[in-house]
Amino acid sequence: MKLILRYLKKHIVIFCISTAFLTLEAVADLLQPTYMSYIVDNGVADKNTDKILMYGGIMLGIALFGAFCAVMRNHFASRTSQTIGKEIRHDIYQNVQSLSLENIDRLQPASIITRITNDVTQIQDFINSIMRILIKAPVTGIGAVILIIVQTPKQAPIMIIIIVIASLLIVANIMVGYPRFGKVQKKLDKLNGVSREFLSSVRVVKAFRAEDRETGKFDDASGELAAANTSALRAMAMFAPLINLTVNFGIVLLLWISKDQKAADIGRLMASVNYMGQVLFALNFISNVINSAVRALASSERIKEVLDEKPAQKKAENPGKPEIKGRLEFKNVSFAYANSSRNALNNISFTAEPGQTIGIIGPTGSGKSSLVNLIPRFYDCTEGSITVDGCDVREIDEEYLRNRISLVAQKALLFTGTIKENLSWGLSRAVNGETQKEKSGNYDMDRITKAADIACASEFIENTENGYETLLGQGGVNLSGGQKQRLSIARALIKNPSILILDDCTSALDANTESKVLKGLSEMETKATVLLISQRISTVMRVDKILCLNNGTVEGFGTHAELLENCRTYREIYESQIGKIEKL
Ligand code: ADP
Ligand code: MG
Q1: 344 lines ligand 1 (CB under 6 A)
Q2: Residue 332 located in a structural domain
Q3: Does the beta carbon of 287 sit less than 6 angstroms from any atom of ligand 1?
Q4: Residue 323 lies in a domain
Q5: From the CA of 505, which ligand is nearest?
Q6: pLDDT for 160
Q7: Residue 534 contacts residue 540 (beta carbons within 8 Å)
Q8: CATH number at residue 425
Q9: Separation of alpha carbons 289 and 10, rounded Å
Q10: 413, 415, 492, 580: least CB-packed within 10 angstroms?
Q11: What are residue 374's phi and psi, to 5 degrees?
Q12: Do 22 and 105 belong together in one domain?
């Protein structure tokens, strides 16, 4: 609730204006039955047409005024709720951007998406509904009760009893609804998670003909959501009719008590019954707002969870910007993922000199990606230290560090936009370590084509219909795996990094293209320190030094010849890929 109030506070002026219109509208509604009673008791009873016309005219005027107020408060309510929704979404998004991968692993992307979309909508609906009826309901309700007491004092005690019963029903409504709507939101998360997993791996699902199993999973999640929703709505559904029943019963009682009312007071009695109708309306409104409040509360808790999430990594107090030449040193580095009790990396130590190329080889799951992810601080090591040119990465300004390091991830990720835009991602962010303002539409084509040349991408780019202007779909769907990998490499090269990390990103290239790319790297003007991860021994065997990983530990570090000599795992990989080596 605090969260909602915090955002409402920013729009307090409009909130007050809308509330003022709402109050006027309520007053207009309240005046109607009173004038009605004047028409009946004074006009009709006395057969006075002038009075009937006069009061009728006043009623029409009041109705028009009420309608005008209703239009105004609707306008302000929609505007404010939409603006607040936009602000919350913006804040969530911005906070998520600042989080480290450890936070994202914990919160889960599917759940973050539900929070940005569904949970924000719940809060929007709630704000909209309180601005539309919050004040009106009590004003109408209380006003109606007072007017009933004025019009027909004898019946007042019954009113009070009815209001008390209805209020109790509303409290029960909150207590029943709150936990149930929390559950609905969780099920929605799950459904989003299943859909997201299916859609991002649709090729694999089809290849394994696993559509049925996936559909089953989806149906299960969807069924659970429906069940949770049904249970919540069923529990809530009871209350509105119960409140209706109570009030209608009150009206009957009121009429029964008034059965020996004088004929001259018929108009007053009619007004009272009318006011009872308004009380009922008000109570229904209140219970609706409460339903929506219950949902909004559950949602705001979930949104708060994301907004309150602090980056898992500590920021350095005085982050430095040392000159980075590319000397990289791991000293007794161990690392465990926050959600795992096992170390993914154990006591890793090695050094890469500026300009050297270090190959990293090892079976899948041996920790190769985990190791390189520590260098640009996607995660922080749990023990030991990683230094770049003698400076601990945790002490270096994060943006500066990431500008000097290019990491090409195992899975090539491209964005919707032209090839040129995708490639210049690196360019606009960093030129020689200094962040430059992005000059829109002003691309350094020279650097782009040079990088594309080294990554062996220029040929296929030029063969596409629109060349560098070719539009890529989301994630680069209209490209082959190897094409995507070459574009990702080119994008990384444009930054002119001091440290270049290639995480198994040449796997989809044929041997010939791969060796061309690697040769191109060694011929670059400013030679970067390269960490080259691969499953293929042929890729790494010619580089300066090779790190052989197994099960998160270093099994060997040295040249190809050294490792063949004294690293069993390396020899096994060699023999399985190239063939048995003759014992000397
Ligand atoms: P490789 O790149 O050599 O195939 P990884 O570094 O990806 O290996 O994985 C090493 C180990 O860490 C594996 O056991 C894997 O299950 C685990 N792991 C990888 N990513 C995560 C993660 N985000 N959360 C928890 N465990 C992970
Ligand atoms: Mg990997």
Answers
A1: yes
A2: no
A3: no
A4: no
A5: 2
A6: 74
A7: yes
A8: 3.40.50.300
A9: 21
A10: 580
A11: -75, -25
A12: yes
For the entire predicted model, the pTM comes to 0.74
- The residue to which tokens 């001259």 are assigned: 264
User: How far, in Å, from the CA of 504 to the mean position of ligand 1?
Assistant: 14
Query: Which residues fall within 8 angstroms of residue 485, CB to CB, at 6 or more apart?
Result: 408, 412, 505, 506, 507, 508, 509
The tokens describing 71, both together, are 């239009």
**367 shares its domain with 488:** yes
Any atom of ligand 1 within 6 Å of the Cβ of 367: yes
Assess whether 383 and 515 both reside in one domain.
yes
- Structural domain range at position 559: 348-577
Please tell me if the CB atom of residue 460 comes closer than 6 angstroms to any atom of ligand 1.
no
Residues 303 and 353 in one domain: no
> Ligand 1: which atom is nearest the Cα of residue 552?
10
- Residue 157 sits in a domain whose CATH number is 1.20.1560.10
Output Rg (C-alpha) for the chain, integer angstroms: 35
Instruction: State which ligand 1 atom lies nearest to the alpha carbon of 371.
Output: 6
Number of domains in the chain: 2
Ligand 1 touching residue 103 (CB < 6 A): no
Ligand closest to 361 (CA) is 1
Token code pair at residue 119? 């949970």
What is the structure's pLDDT at 298? 80
Note whether 256 and 392 are same-domain residues: no
105 C-beta closer than 6 A to ligand 1: yes
DSSP string for 175-202: HHHHHHHHHHHHHHHHHHHHHHHHHHTH
Indicate the residue among 284, 307, 330 that finishes a domain. 307
Whose alpha carbon is nearest atom 24 of ligand 1? 337
> Same domain for 416 and 554?
yes
- Of 253, 288, 307, the residue that ends a domain is 307
Alpha-carbon span 462 to 419, nearest angstrom: 11
- Per the domain annotation, does 314 fall within a domain? no
Cα–Cα dist 5/514, whole Å: 58
pLDDT in tens, 322-378: 888 889 999 999 999 988 889 999 999 999 999 999 999 998 889 999 999 999 999
Residue type, 512: N
Same domain, 365 and 252: no
Reduced to 3 states (helix: H, G, I; strand: E, B; else coil), residue 334 is: strand
* Ligand 1 site, residue 134, Cβ cutoff 6 A: no
Instruction: For 160-296, list the strands marked E by DSSP.
Output: none
SS3 per-residue string spanning 402-438: HHHEEEECCCCCCCCEEHHHHHCHHHHHCECCECCCC
Ligand 2 center to 411 CA (angstroms): 9
455-507: pLDDT as tens digits = 999 988 988 888 988 888 877 778 888 999 999 999 999 888 999 999 998 88
Residue with tokens 């004929």: 263
Note whether 359 and 478 are same-domain residues: yes
3-state secondary structure of 384: strand
Task: Tell me whether residue 283 is in a domain.
Answer: yes
Q: Which of 115-124, 279-288, 320-329 has the lowest mean pLDDT?
A: 279-288
For ligand 1, mutation pick of 342, 370, 411, 540 (most atoms within 8 Å of CB): 370
Tally of CA atoms within 13 A in the half-sphere of 352 that contains its CB:
30
